[in-house]
Here is the input.
Amino acid sequence: MPIYIAAHKPATFPNSPLYKPLALGGAELGQEGVIDNQDDNISHLNKYYCELTGTYWIWKNGKTDIAGLCHYRRYFNFIPVATNHAILHAPFDDKTRTILEHPEQLRLVHALLDRYDVIVPRAIFEPHSVEHTYKTSHGVVEWESFIANLDLLYGRKAHSLDLERRFFIGNMLLCKRSIFDHYASQLFHVLDRVSQEVGTLPPQEGARYQPYRYPAYLGERFTSAFIKANKLSYYEAQILLIHG
Here is the structure.
C-alpha cells in the first residue's frame, strides 16, 4: 500500500500495514520508515513546499499500486466517528489508535478505490471562493501566477478556481498509482513554474501563514483544480486531527 505519514519530527504513529512514516526535510524520526532526502528528491525545498516534498518522493520513488499521503497530525478515517464532523479533533490515545489500526480501514481503502478515482479529505466550503480566501489570507502575486499557469494547463473553464468553493486541506490524497503519478506530474509542473516566476517571499514576523510557504498552500488549492479539470470521481473521508 502504504499511506505515507509526513512528519518533520518524532511522533507517535499507528502500528498498521496501512501506514508508513515518511520523514520530511531529511529529519530522523527514530523508527522504521523512509526519509525524503533519499534517491530522487526535493528535500532541500521542504521549508517552502512542506509536505509536498513527501509527495514528490512518493511520485519519484514509490513502487506500490496505491499511493497516498497523510500527516502525523491529520489522518484519513474510513470508519467515521460523529459523522457530521468533517474534522474530528482527538488526542493520540488508545481510542484513536484502535480506530486507525482497525483492519477495516485497509479493507475500505481498497473498496473505495474500486469505486472512486481518488480519496480526499472531506471538503471545507469557503464563504466566497477559493480564490477570494487565498488572496485575503495569503497573497495576490503568487495566486495570479498560479491561476495563469492553471489556465495554460487546463483552461479557465476546466478548473474554474475563481468560482470554486471546495477546499481540501493538507495536501492529502490517496489513489491508484497511475492517477497519483498524473496528479504529481501536473502539480509540480504548475508549482515549479510559479516558484520560478515569483521567487522566494520573505518571512513575515508573527504571521500564522508564512509567505515563503506559498507552494504548499497553493498545492492544497490545486487538488480542487486537478479533480475538476480531469473529471475525476472522489470520496471525501473524515479527518482525525491529532492534538496534544
About this structure: The two ends are 28 Å apart (CA to CA). The mean pLDDT is 94. Residues 3-243 form a domain with the Spore Coat Polysaccharide Biosynthesis Protein SpsA; Chain A fold (CATH 3.90.550).
